[in-house]
TrEMBL record:
Organism field: Opuntia streptacantha (Prickly pear cactus)
MF-aspect GO terms: mRNA binding
Protein name, UniProt field: THO complex subunitTHOC2 C-terminal domain-containing protein
One example of a Gene Ontology biological process annotation: mRNA processing
THO complex subunitTHOC2 C-terminal domain location: 1-104
GO cellular component: THO complex part of transcription export complex
Length: 108
């Protein structure tokens, strides 16, 4: 997951990078069955990237709120592994930070 997020954030960093590295690749066709079909635009990629980030964040929060030790543990391990490439800003970052504080307080 770390490597996938790392390259996705790199592509997201600049439209020219995205166009150079992804613009004509068959894996970025809008319709996979038709490799010569229209390609995913930079704007579409940004929207998909945002959806991925939201889903990962929701799952992490769900795991951290779980009463199951293993789910909490796995979420914390995942967060430590992807923290350098998974950007948490705004409300989402605060939610995760508050959840971490709650867990820390429970432990003490």
């Amino acid at each position: 997951l770390f490597e996938t997020l790392k390259i996705a954030y790199y592509w997201k960093s600049d439209e020219s990078v995205y166009e150079r590295e992804c613009g004509n690749m068959p894996g970025f066709a809008v319709y996979y069955r038709y490799p010569n079909s229209q390609r995913v635009t930079y704007g579409q990629f940004i929207k998909v990237h945002w959806k991925w980030s939201q889903r990962i964040t929701r799952l992490l929060i769900q795991c951290l709120e779980s009463p199951e030790y293993m789910e909490i543990r796995n979420a914390l391990i995942l967060l430590t592994k992807i923290s350098s490439v998974f950007q948490l800003r705004g409300r989402v970052g605060l939610t995760l930070k508050n959840e971490w504080r709650r867990l820390k307080a429970m432990r003490e």
